[in-house]
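hiii so um. not sure if this is the right channel but i have a protein structure encoded as tokens and i wanna go backwards to a sequence. like what aa goes where. can anyone help
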């Protein structure tokens, strides 16, 4: 099921474009991390955006809380299981692997960066940069969008537009919730969004490469066993 006949999770037509975007996103993550290292206060941009978003009342606060739950362990696990199940039902095993590996790598990277950067919010114990919730939501949206581009057979322009639109919508929704609830600064959200944009294309490329190598080895072993 994971042979070369299985569709790649990162279509060849998107590799250069998403690779370039991933490199730019990684640069943004590093720059923001350096700017806000060991900081515990909002920057100018953070303060201006937070004034307009923070402290929303009902019913938007309920929407923000529901959105935030999707990034918590329980909500995130439910989304991952549902997405993996959908990938398997659609006979897209590589995509199922990418859901787990991609989201795991993205959240793991965000967690590592939090400890390296040391930015805090509401006290020394609350590491905030980058936003793990935003990183997870964006990563999952990217994987689903990549799956959709393969299923729909989209061209490079349409596929790139779909992938970026999905990342933008998911990142903006979760990012808004995090800022509205006071859990993150806006620049934390941007860092989380860019973390997913940097990690998912690289992870997708690795999944395809490892799957292709596995199939090649199985094919070689099969040829050796033939009389």
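sure thing!! here u go:
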């Amino acid at each position: 099921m994971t042979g070369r006949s299985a569709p790649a999770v990162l279509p060849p037509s998107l590799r250069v474009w998403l690779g370039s975007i991933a490199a730019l996103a990684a640069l943004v993550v590093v720059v923001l991390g350096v700017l806000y290292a060991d900081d515990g206060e909002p920057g100018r941009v953070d303060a201006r955006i937070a004034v307009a978003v923070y402290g929303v009342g009902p019913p938007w606060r309920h929407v923000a809380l529901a959105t935030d739950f999707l990034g918590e362990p329980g909500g995130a696990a439910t989304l991952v299981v549902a997405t993996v199940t959908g990938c398997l039902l659609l006979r897209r095993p590589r995509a199922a692997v990418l859901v787990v590996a991609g989201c795991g790598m993205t959240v793991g990277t965000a967690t590592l960066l939090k400890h390296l950067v040391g930015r805090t919010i509401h006290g020394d114990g609350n590491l905030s940069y980058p936003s793990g919730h935003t990183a997870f939501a964006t990563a999952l949206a990217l994987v689903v969008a990549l799956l959709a581009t393969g299923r729909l057979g989209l061209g490079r322009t349409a596929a790139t537009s779909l992938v970026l639109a999905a990342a933008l919508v998911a990142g903006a929704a979760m990012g808004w919730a995090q800022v509205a609830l006071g859990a993150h600064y806006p620049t934390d959200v941007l860092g989380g969004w860019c973390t997913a944009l940097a990690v998912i294309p690289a992870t997708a490329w690795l999944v395809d490469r490892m799957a292709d190598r596995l199939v090649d080895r199985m094919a070689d072993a099969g040829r050796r066993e033939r009389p």
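oh and The two ends are 25 Å apart (CA to CA).
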